[in-house]
Amino acid sequence: MANDPRERATLWPKGRLFEDFHVGQTFDHHWGRTIFEADTVLFSTLTLSFNPLYFNRAYAKAHGHPDIVVNPQLVFNVVLGLSVEDCSEIGGPFLGVFELTYDRSVYPGSTIVARTTTTETRRSDSRPGSGIVSWLTEGFDEAGKRVVGFRRSNLVRLRNPKVEAA
After folding, report:
1. Which of 42, 92, 93, 164 is the most buried (most CB within 10 A)?
2. Position with higher pLDDT, 10 vs 153
3. In the structure, how many helices (H) and strands (E) does the chain have?
4. Nearest to 117 by CA among 163, 86, 147
5. Residue 17 in contact with residue 156, Cβ under 8 Å?
């Protein structure tokens, strides 16, 4: 095509490479996400999470909650998703989640924000062109109370894998 806009498009690099991370570095992830009743009911149904706390208001209230409870796995997924742009958008194998802690229940209408701190960076022994970066990611409600926290690690490409670390 003669006027294909893709030919004029500029590719904007996204994500951070291994050298862009340092221990103690903190990211206050932008946006946040309000979790609505429909979000948790649909998520619970699609993932076959048939705990009535997640979709039965009368049951949740009978068990001491003011409303249905947002499925904790959805809370985790939202917080992890908020961290991706700053920490792992460039890709690289996800190495796992560790020390996952749910601190308090979340209810529909809550807006969740996230913060991540880099806790470890090291060169990979088995993949010379990569390093391993670990983070502590925390999610907070609109009152600033922590609702979830976890550590996670990713294999992250080196900027120039041919140059050895000093």
Report:
1. 92
2. 153
3. 4, 6
4. 86
5. yes
